[in-house]
Fold:
Amino acid sequence: MIIITGATGSLGARIVEHVLARVPAGRVGVSVRDPERARELADRGVRVRRGDFSEPATLDRAFEGADRVLVVSPDVLGPDGVARSVAAVDAAYRAGAERVLYTGHQAAAPDSLFAPARDHAAVEARLASTGRAWTSLRNGYYATSLLFHLGDAASTGELLAPADGPVAWTTHDDLAEAAAALLVGTDVADGPTPPLTASEAVDLEQVARTLSELTGRTVRRVVLDDEDFVARRVAAGVPEAMARALLGSYLAARRGEFATADPFLATLLGRPATPVRVTLQGMIGTGTA
Structure:
């Protein structure tokens, strides 16, 4: 049985759908904090059980009978987030899973300037220490995060942000389809995958130019001083520690941590990965950019 955690979340729900397009529902189970939110999956024949990373005892039953478990990383940063992911990894092996897959990040490294990437590296270290079969999906930077970086650039004509670097923005849909292919595949390598990214990395200057083309109005890229950025976020009500953590994404981009654009994702999909221009078109069309 294939078990997927976080199956009602933005990424997990998409992964479940792509898995169900490949295997019968009876071979699929989901681990969710609130089974009521997964009632529709249960009605389709998917096994739905409660599993909460912060309550490891619930995971033993949720993962029962698993051949493979996909641990979708929780939306929690720092030691708490790492502890939750590690608890899920340990429970999966305890349940007898032959392989554990984990949704990591292309920049995963202990010395990353991007805090979530350091967390992912810590979970990968735990996976490696088990001596069991494991795969970490080195997901590209989620394209939906562009909304944060864009702010109200489309309406004001100014894209205000600290100095950055190229990012291979990658969509949830592409990553979900790739995760499903790896989950049901037979030729899955141990360790981290190659970066699962779009085929092109762009900086915010290029994003501003694309926005200008799509909206028909000039959008200028305005570079903010790092400390000015932090001060603006704090003034907007963001705690300083979080503001500095947000700054870390720009520092990491400058260092090239998100710049790799690898063909592996397109190979898994059997088609080109979705380019950032399409993501921006969608944001403009829905009024979110």
Remarks:
- The first strand starts at residue 2 and ends at 5.
- The chain has a mean pLDDT of 96.
